Structures are given as structure tokens and as C-alpha cells.
Amino acid sequence: MCYGGESIGYTKPSYVTVPFGHLVITPYVASSSYYFGKVNTIPIATAVRNNVYVPCKGVIRAVVMMNASVTAVGTNEDWTMSIRVNNTTTYAIATTGAATNVRTWNNFNLNIPVNAGDFFEILTDTPAWVTAPSGTACQGVVLIESA
Fold first, then answer.
1. Spatial separation of the C-alpha atoms in residues 104 and 133, rounded to whole Å
2. What is the pLDDT of residue 10?
3. What pLDDT score does 26 carry?
4. At a CB cut-off of 8 Å and minimum separation 6, what does 134 contact?
């Protein structure tokens, strides 16, 4: 059970949501890799700088995230987001190809084991946009089923 709680006979799983995101970036550079996670930071090209730490042992079951572009929408090339755990293993979240102000990447079928103290970052490999989205900010949550 997360946070050192004691079981009192409750048999349903316990879940923890861990928020992540990034501040506005203008614009993403085409065909580049970015890492982000800690809220109130910007995406950067170097891993292990925006770590979000896992509070308990369990299994990541879902990632729900959105990215809003307020300056320029950008074109509709396929754009993939992944979650990278402990800077060793990368799991795809989803790919979206939309020319809209708000893009979403959701995956409710994940099965990623984690331990308390592990960390994750969101990794994006941007496509070769004709026009990159600009003035974008991202927010999301990771859903952990605690062990």
C-alpha cells in the first residue's frame, strides 16, 4: 500500500496519480528529442533533468496527457509521446497526427512495474513538421496501481 498505510481488509486496488507537465515552449524543433516531466520546467534535449519520482511500489496502468498550442497549431504529422522509466526503458504512450490547438495522448493499457523512488520522464521525438506547433504547454497524469 502506498505511503506506508496499513491494510484494513479493503480488497480493491489503490491508485495514485502523479502529475507531470511542462511550461510553454516556442516552438518545438522538428525532428528532435525532448524530455520533460517536472511541472514548471521546459522540455530539454538532455535526459535525467526533469525527473518525476514515483511515490510507491506498483504498476503504471495509464498515462493521460494533453498539449495545447496557443501561438501556432502546426501541421498534422504523426507525433509520438513515450514514458521513459529510470532512463533505461521506454514505453510508447500514443501517437497522434492532428492539426488542432489541443492534442491528446492517452494509454489505459499499460503494465509498467515501478518501485518507490523510481523516476520517469516523458520523451517525445518530434516529427519533421512542415510547420511546428508553437506556444505549447503540456500537462498530464500517470496512474499507478499501488502494490
1. 14
2. 57
3. 81
4. 26, 27, 28, 69, 71, 72, 74
Q: Give CATH for domain 29-146.
A: 2.60.120
pLDDT digits (tens, 9 = 90+) for 81-120: 999 999 999 999 999 999 999 999 999 999 999 999 999 9
Residues 6+ apart with CB under 8 A from 7: 1
- Asked if the model's pLDDT at residue 8 lies above 60, the reply is no
Can you say whether the dihedral through the CA atoms of 25, 31, 32, 38 is positive or negative? Answer: positive
Q: Band of the pLDDT at 145, cuts 50, 70, 90?
A: very high
DSSP 47-60: SSSS-EE--SSEEE
The mean pLDDT of the chain is: 92
| Helix/strand/coil (H/E/C) assignment for every residue in 79-128 | EEEEEEECCCEEEEEEEECCCCCEEEEEECCCCEEECCCCEEEEEEECCC
Domain boundaries, the chain: 29-146
* Cα–Cα nearest to 145, from 3, 18, 16, 6: 16
